[in-house]
Amino acid sequence: MSFVGRLLLLVLVPVVGLVALATYLTLYFSEAGDRAYARMVHTQEAIETAHMLLLDLQDAETGFRGYLITTNPTYLEPYNQAVNTLPGRLQRLTALAAGAADQAERVARMRPVVEERMAVLKTALDQVAQGERERILQGLGVGRGKQLMDEARRQLGEFVEVQRRLLDQGQSANRQNDRFTLYTALGGSFIALMALVIGTLLLFANNWRLQRAEAQLSRQSQILQNTLDNIRHGIAHFDARGKLAAFNSRFFAKLGFPSELARSGAAVEEFRKVEQQRGSNVLAAAPEGGALPAGPAMFRLDGHEYEIYRSATPDGGFVVSCIDITQRVQAEVMFRQTQKMEAIGQLTGGVAHDFNNLLQIVASNIDLVRAAPEDPRNPQRLDLAMAGTERGARLTRQLLAFARRQPLEPRPTNLGRLVTDMTELVRRSLGEAIQVETIIAGGLWNAVADPGQMENAILNLAINARDAMDEGGKLTIEVANAFLDEAYAAQHAEVSAGQYVMLAVSDTGTGMSTEVAARAFEPFFSTKPEGQGTGLGLSQVYGYVKQLGGHVKLYSEPGHGTTVKIYLPRTRQPEETLEAATLAPIQFGRETVLVVEDDEAVRNGAIDVLGDLGYRVLQAANAEAALAIIASGAAIDILFTDVVMPGPIKTRDLVRQAQARLPGLAVLYTSGYTENAIIHDGRLDEDVLLISKPYRREELARKLRTALDQVRRPQLAGTLPPSLQAVPSQPQLQPQPQAQAQAQPAAEPRAVLFVEDDALVRMSAVEFLIDCGLSVVEVGDGDAALKELQARPQIDVMLTDLGLPGMGGSELIAQVRKLRPDVKVAVLTGRSRKVLLQEGAIPADVMCLEKPYELDALRRAVETLRQDPA
Questions:
Q1: pLDDT tens per residue, range 96-136
Q2: Are 464 and 539 in contact (CB under 8 A)?
Q3: Nearest to 355 by CA among 382, 384, 381, 389
C-alpha cells in the first residue's frame, strides 16, 4: 500500500470513526433530550393534576362552608363540580405516579385521605339537611374534617415538591444534553463536512423541541398563575431570600398592600415597613432559631375580618394565605344575639308568670275586702295579700342573687343546727309523698354563711328535688366536714384548697342528662315549659355560694336521682345566733327619725308607718335637703336613708357629714338595689344596718330599735296598749273547707271546677265564687281535675290555669274534651288570647281571662259559659 493510501487509510479511518462516533453521540444525546423532554412533560402534568386536585378539594370545602353559613344552594356548585372531577383526577394522578414506586405509594396514601374528606363533607351536608346546622356551625373549623384537609394539603404539597425537583433535574439534564450535542457537532465539523451537516441538523431539531417545551412550560406557568388569581383566598410565597416569588391579586386587595409591591422579587422588608406604619403583623418574622407563629392570626381591614395562615416551605421560604371570614363572624354575632334574646324571653316569661300570680293574689283579696269591709275574714284576706307581696320580694331577691348583687350578712353559722331547725318546714313544703331524712355529722365545724339566704338555698334545692319526684321519693340532706385538696382545686379553677363544711341535698328523682346537668346552674335555663319558670332557682343558689367564696358541685344520672353539694368555707369563730329581740314583740319609740327618700310615695308610706310606731318624723327628698335640716340644729336620733340617691352627694357622704355634726347619730339604710354603695365583695360593711325593700312594719320597728341600741342611745320606755302588740311576721293561712263543695251528690246543683296550682290564688278566687252562691270544686293539678270530672257529673264549667305542674293546661283541655265534651272551659293565664291561639295552646271556642283579672270577671265568665248553648 502506498504512502498516500496508508495516509488516506490513517486519515479516513479516524475520520470515519470520529464521524461515526460524532454521529452516534449526536443521536444518543438527541434521544436523551427527547426522553428528558418527555419526563418534563410528564412531571408538569403531574404537578398540574395535583394542583387541580387541591383546588377541587378547596372548592368543595368552600362551597360547603358557604352553603352552611348562608343556606344558599348556589354555594354548593363548587362542591358538586368537585364531586364530579375528583375521581378522574385521582385516577390520572395514580397513572402519572405509576412509574415511580415512592410517588405511587404517596398517591396511594393520599387517595383515602381525599376520599374520606369528601365523605365527611357529604355526611355534614346530610346532617344539615336533617336540621343539625347549628351543631355543624359550632364545630366548624375543628374536628376530623379539618384534620383531613390539612393532611391532604400536606401530602399534595409534598407530592408537588418532589415533582418540581424532578422537573428541575430534567431541565438540568436537558441543558447538559444540549451542550454535549453542540460540542460533538462542532468537533465533527472540523473532521468532516458530513458530520458537521448532520450534527447541525440534529442540533436544530433538538433546539426546536426545546423551544416547544419551553413554550409549553410558559403556558403551564400562566395557567398556574391564572389559577392562583381565581382562588378566593389571598396567597403569596416568599422564597428563602425573602423575595416575593408567587402571589395572586387577592393577596394585595384583601390585605391592603400597595400595588407597586405586586411584582416578583419584591423584598419582604418592604411589606413589613407598610405593616409597621399601620400597626399590623400579618408577615410576622419567625424568631431566630424558631418557627413561624402557629395557628391563624386575625386581621381587620375596611370592615372585613380575615384569618391569616403562615407556613414555612422546604426551600427556606414561607407561604402566607388570608381567608375572608366576615360572613362567618357576622353569622356568629347573630347567633349569639339570638341566644341572648332567647334568654331574655325565658326570663321575661317566667317573671311575668310569677308576678301575674302574686298580683292576682293581692288584687283578689283587696277586692274581697273592698266589697265587704265588715267581713270578719278580712284580716285573713289581708294576710294573704301581704303573703303575695312577700313572694314578689322573694322574686326580686332571686334576680339579685343570680346577679350576685344581693346584700349578704355572713356570720359564723352551724349548718347542722340550721338544717335541723328547718327540717319541718322542708317536710311541709314537699308534702307527704316525699320522705325527708337529715344526716348531721358529729364534730361539725362552723361555716361562713348568711343563715337567711342559706335557708332559701336549701328550700330551692328541696323544691327542685320535689319537681323531679312526681310519684314520691326520698330527699336526703347531709351536713359534714370536708377538705378539698390541691388535686381537686387543680381540676376546678374557682376552688381554693382548704377546709369546708359540705351540705348535700340528694333526691331519688328522674335525674338529669349530661347536657341538662351541664346547664343546670345557667341563669334563665329551665326544663319547665316556657312562661312557667324564670330559670333562676339553681342560679340563685350558685350565685349565693360563689358570693361567699364557696363551691357548688352537681352529680346526676338519668333514672338514679341528683345530688347537689355545697361547700362553704370553714371559720374558727364561734357561732353567732340571732338576737332574742328579733323574735320579741315590736317596740315603739318616741325618738326623732330623719327620713331621706327621693320617691315621694315610698317616703310618705315610711312616714305613716313611723308615725304609727310613735316616732317623730322629719323628711327630705335628697341628701342636700337632709343636710340642711341637720344644719338647722334639729334634734335627730336616727337617720333612715335610701342607698341610691339623686344629686351630687352620695349616701355614704351624707352619713359621714351627718355623723360629724351629730356624734352618736344612728343610721339605718334601705334599698332594693345597693349598687355597691354599702356592699363590698358581696357583703355588707361591718358598720352597716340594712333593711331591704319591700319591708314590713314590724321588721322596720325592730331594725330601728337595733340601730338605736347599737349607738347606746337611751330608750324611751312606755306602756303599750294591747292594740299595739306585734302582729305575726308571717301570714297564717287557713285552708278553706272544701268538703262543702266536693261532697255534693250528682243530683245537687251544677258545680264549677277551679284548677290552679298556686294555693293563694286558688283560695281567694274560690272564696269569692262561693260567696257568689256558686258550688265550687278546687284542685291543684290536671290529674286531680280529671278524677273530679269523672266522679262529679254535676260539674259543667271548668276554670283552669295553663301553667300547671305535670299535665299542662292545654293537655288538660284536650283530655276534658274527650272525657266530658259537655263541660265548658275558660283559661286563666298571663298571656294574651291572640298569642295562645297562634301557638295552638287553646281551642278557638275556649274563653280566656288574662291575669291579673277582677274577681267579678270569674262570676261573669261562669254565667256566660252556662248561657252559651254550644
A1: 888 778 888 888 888 888 888 888 888 888 888 887 877 77
A2: no
A3: 389
Q: How far is CA 831 from CA 348, 349, 814, 847, 861, in A?
A: 12, 9, 19, 13, 17
- For residue 677, the tally of other CB atoms under 10 A from its CB is 18
> Quick one: angle between helices 759-771 and 326-371, nearest 10?
40
DSSP state of 267: B
Per-residue pLDDT at 336 exceeds 80: no
Nearest-Å Rg of the Cα atoms of the chain is 44
Q: What is the full DSSP assignment across 93-106?
A: HHHHTTTSHHHHHH
d(CA 694, CA 645): 17
Encode burial over 496-512: b for 16+ CB neighbours within 10 A, e otherwise. eeeebbbbbbbbbbbbb
Rounded to the nearest integer, the mean pLDDT of the chain is: 77
625 closest CA partner among 603, 601, 602: 603
Count of Cβ atoms closer than 10 Å to residue 35 Cβ = 14
Q: Is there a contact between 453 and 401 (Cβ–Cβ < 8 Å)?
A: yes
Find cell 424532578 and name the residue: 166
Give the model confidence (pLDDT) of 525-572 as tens digits. Answer: 555 544 444 444 577 677 778 877 888 888 888 888 889 999 999 988
Element (H, E) at 730: none
User: What are the angstrom distances between the C-alpha of 319 and each of 227, 276, 815?
Assistant: 16, 20, 69
The CA distance from 120 to 160, in Å, is 25
- 617-656 pLDDT, tens digit each: 999 999 999 999 999 888 899 999 988 777 888 888 888 8
Q: Is 671 helix (H, G, I), strand (E, B) or coil?
A: strand
Q: In angstroms, rounded to a whole number, what is the distance separating the alpha carbons of residues 771 and 765? A: 10
* CA 538 – CA 456 distance, rounded (Å): 11
